């Protein structure tokens, strides 16, 4: 399970830290966060902060047979799933990133997609997606542009700070993605 909560000093020291991608060739869905938070940077696990709703939404949508703890993230590839980030460096808040960092991250992400060729890229954070990919009018769901043969979806940010998306509505939009890429 997830290690003991990081101390304030450990969280402060995590600023700028990076965590490895959970990725493999031919995944069904590669989830892409905006960037790691300090909690993730301190623990080394994606979406690790208590209150982040990524792991509950993933399970509620039917992607995993049980709710995974962030420390179990390496099990994702066995389900055809992976995780990466638009920007690798950990920050306290995503709004600390510059538009240029997000655009540069989209270029790096595109190279990962070309290398690993997942069936779908699911960016969790519509505002970051809009900025990174230059699509200011993008909406939640399937996007008209793909990256090579990889379909692109935009999902809401599962952070607890994104309060107008409830756990139930997050699970619904995650489930619509699962239905598309697990029914074929």
Textual characterization of the structure:
This protein has 6 helices and 5 strands. By secondary structure, it is of the alpha/beta class. The protein has one domain (26-182): 3-Layer(aba) Sandwich (Uracil-DNA Glycosylase, subunit E), CATH 3.40.470.10.
Write the layout of secondary structure elements.
Blueprint: H1 8-13, E1 29-33, H2 38-43, H3 54-60, E2 81-85, H4 99-116, E3 120-124, H5 126-133, E4 141-142, E5 151-155, H6 167-182
Parallel strand pairs: 1-2, 1-3, 3-5
Antiparallel strand pairs: 4-5
The count of DSSP E runs of length 2 or more, i.e. the number of strands, is 5
N-to-C SSE string, H for helix and E for strand: HEHHEHEHEEH
Name of the level-1 CATH class:
Alpha Beta
Q: Would you tell me the overall average pLDDT? A: 94
Name of the CATH architecture:
3-Layer(aba) Sandwich
Sequence stretches where pLDDT stays below 50 over 5 or more residues = none
Total tally of structural domains: 1
The main pleated sheet reads as: 5 strands, mixed
Q: End-to-end span in angstroms? A: 33 Å
Helix and strand composition category? alpha/beta
Q: What is the count of DSSP helices, taking H or I runs of 4+ residues?
A: 6
Using only CA atoms, what is the Rg? Answer: 15 Å
CATH superfamily: Uracil-DNA glycosylase-like domain
Strand order of the largest sheet: 2-1-3-5-4
What would you say about this model in short?
GO terms for molecular function: pyrimidine-specific mismatch base pair DNA N-glycosylase activity; uracil DNA N-glycosylase activity. Its EC number is 3.2.2.28. This protein has 184 residues and is an alpha/beta fold.
């Amino acid at each position: 399970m997830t290690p003991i909560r990081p101390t304030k000093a450990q969280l402060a020291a995590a600023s700028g830290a990076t965590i490895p991608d959970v990725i493999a060739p031919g995944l069904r869905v590669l989830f892409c966060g905006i960037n790691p938070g300090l909690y993730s940077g301190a623990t080394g696990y994606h979406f690790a902060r208590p209150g982040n709703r990524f792991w509950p939404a993933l399970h509620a949508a039917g992607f995993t047979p049980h709710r995974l703890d962030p420390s179990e993230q390496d099990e994702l590839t066995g389900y055809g799933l992976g995780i990466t980030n638009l920007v690798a460096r950990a920050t306290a808040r995503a709004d600390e990133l510059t538009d240029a960092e997000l655009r540069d991250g989209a270029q790096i992400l595109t190279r990962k997609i070309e290398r690993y060729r997942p069936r779908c890229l699911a960016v969790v954070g519509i505002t970051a997606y809009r900025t990174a990919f230059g699509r200011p009018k993008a909406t939640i769901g399937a996007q008209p542009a793909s990256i090579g043969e990889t379909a692109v979806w935009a999902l809401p940010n599962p952070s607890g700070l994104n309060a107008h998306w409830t756990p139930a509505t997050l699970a619904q939009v995650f489930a619509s993605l699962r239905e598309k890429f697990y029914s074929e």
